[in-house]
Fold each of these.
Amino acid sequence: MNDVIVAAHRWLQQTRGTAFNPNQAHLPVRALSQVAQAYLLFTTSPVLTLQKCANEGDFSINRRNASCYETSVLTPTQLAHLTATLGRGQVTALPIAFSTQWPASVKPSVRSNVKLAIS
Amino acid sequence: MTQTIEVGMLGLGTVGSGVVMRLTQAATKIEQTQGIRLHLAAVAVHHLNAPRAVTLPIGTRLTDKIATVVTDPHIQIVIEVMGTLATAEAAIVAALQHGKSVITANKDLIATAGPRLIALAQRQQCDLFYEASVAGGIPILRTLTDSYATDQVQQVAGIINGTANYILSAMTATGATYAEALAAAQRAGYAEADPTNDVSGLDTTYKLMILSQFAFGQGLTISQIQPQGITMITAAACQQAAQSGWQVKLLAQAQLQVGQLYCRVAPVAVPNTLALSQINGVQNGVAVRSQAIGQSLYTGPGAGARRPPIAS
């Protein structure tokens, strides 16, 4: 209804056709799932199997509940290895919101002046 | 002095009936506070003799010909609430070509055909508004446009599908299975008979595509978002997560990071410490983080929150 009121005012004020989203960008788009982040795992796999996976994959897993585990930050490769090891269908991995570990930004290379002795 | 605006409407289903009721109930207030009288001149429907949830005001013309509404020279604003894709797009195009301002809540259409409809509206010097296409009762698009005009949005994260949130909330609270929670949502009128778009994450994806345009100026595609739905989530997972400090939510996210936009629509575990985790049932919530304001949370009912129950 608010849109109708705004449109009506713009019609009466003869300002219609001017209220468009001015925000335009051309950004590279990436999948958030391809960034390292922590997960909640739901699995009935034995704890020892999970610990072995974690040790091999160099990450940590903490049991939170009967079959619920919290992982440290995992890369997509580590997550893929974990789910492959446990077997597809044997584990549900839910990303923990806002746990993302962002890749370090590429810093511009530092250039310093080199003083040359010219004889 | 009160000035009259002639309004035409396309569709008279659940949403259209709601619009007629609001136009009737709020007429006096709109006249008093805005100085505008909105006169519903004509409504186009598919079947003239279908049963209606509302009685049209005296003087409102009911027609089964869309063209008579969108080409009527007296009608200034067209409200599209048909909810289809091809027919709705053709009707909106015709309305814009005839100089009407158009209001629509058709998120599927705006997400997929928005750029060309907006371009047409600009060429025709008409308005095309679609605030209700995202998060129903939360005026988030206008907020992003106006209130963040001088700010830089860094992240939007939203629970923007009431059906999915109702199902996940019920599974968490009662231990109901996915099928049971979906059936309850359908009985309560919060889920369609075919809930595919809601539970597959597609509806949320369409809304994120629109949100991204307003938050970052960046169009997104379905293939970039690759939505994941909630159909594989179990009640046991929801309840164990809740007992351990997280709520399972179908979350739409877009985040600007070092000049790149990262996006996702998927079920995630939201920490109980975050206000978003407390958005339950058919409520919607959109968290915005920006450079100047920091973190803000906008909550309210989703589009389907006041939907009447489906007759069984």
Amino acid sequence: MSSSYPAVRRAFLAAPIRVDVPLGHQISVPLPTSAWPAPSYLGFACPATRTRGTPPVVSAPDRWWAVTAERPVLVAYAHTLHIPLSGPADPAPVSVATERQGDELEEDLRVAGELLDQVTPAFFAGTNVAARQREELRECLVAVLPRALLPWYRAAVPTFFRWLDESEAS
Amino acid sequence: MTWWQQDFGGDAGEPPSADAGADVPSWLEVRPDGSELLVYGEITAQRTDFFEDFEARSALCCCADVLRAFDRPVGFADLEARLADTPYRDASDLSVAGMAAVLELNGVSARAEVGLSLEDLAAHAEQGRGCVIAVDAGVWWNEPAHWGFGAANLPLTLTASARDPASGDLRGFYFNDPASGRDGVYGDTAVVSRSWLETGAQMVFTEVIKTWVGDLLEGIFG
């Protein structure tokens, strides 16, 4: 049985390797992956330049880590220099702007977590859920995740996004 | 106890003793809204002009802030030279562990920890320890584009704590914020709680305590 998404996110953020992650990095939210035999959640961290009054400028991820879904503990951590993460063809730094307010983003992320809890058991089991549920989750993720970083998210957990996109085709 | 303290197993050791830094400067400050605060610490102006591209080197700027407080003034060239043969030679950004290591390399013993409470943080200022904390820039600057999705992403140098003069209740803190080029920025307990405590309460603090012997002698002998 999978842990709840808030528990997964807490484990991801509290992973002991965090002491190795430079402070200014942009840390992604963890998303489900079926890349390994055990259901897991994977996220990444990108070098970022932060100046007050301007959006952060974020480079390609330089590290990633994963926690298991069943009992959310750290199971993998790597620098992309050694174990690369696939990514978009053009890995140039991007400016990460948003028109949303902080409390809106927090609420979107909370809702996305609830939707992930509803659909990920089916994703990990390789079964289907209603197309409407997948579409709702995809729209929620697109709203909360920085648009400029979406190509990295899609590349990091390609099977999950392909599974979400199937609702468009069905 | 909050979730990361349970999950992360954070242990800040013995709570600092409140009277350990009895010679830490304190003064009464009047806020723009007319309220009074009893401030403990030293609101030092940072010299970010030591650093090229200082906004992008905020972690290193915070280290320089702490080193300067311990009478080890360093410029960018000094730090770069000292870090040349270390894993931190490309110190455009540092982890909390990296900041502790940079302070150690420059002769100030320090360690990275997870804080337990705002009082825990205040005690460091009131003891005279150098301290850098990691906050969520989106919350601290009130700029959603910098929101860390629950993770801290900006270092601030703690320079002072602020208490209610009558009750002694903690009201806020003062920080240097190199990435915005601002010194002595006040943050009340609500914003520090949201930006620091709720995002993992990571911090680096010095194991040594600053003493104000010169100030003390001046006070005695005039």
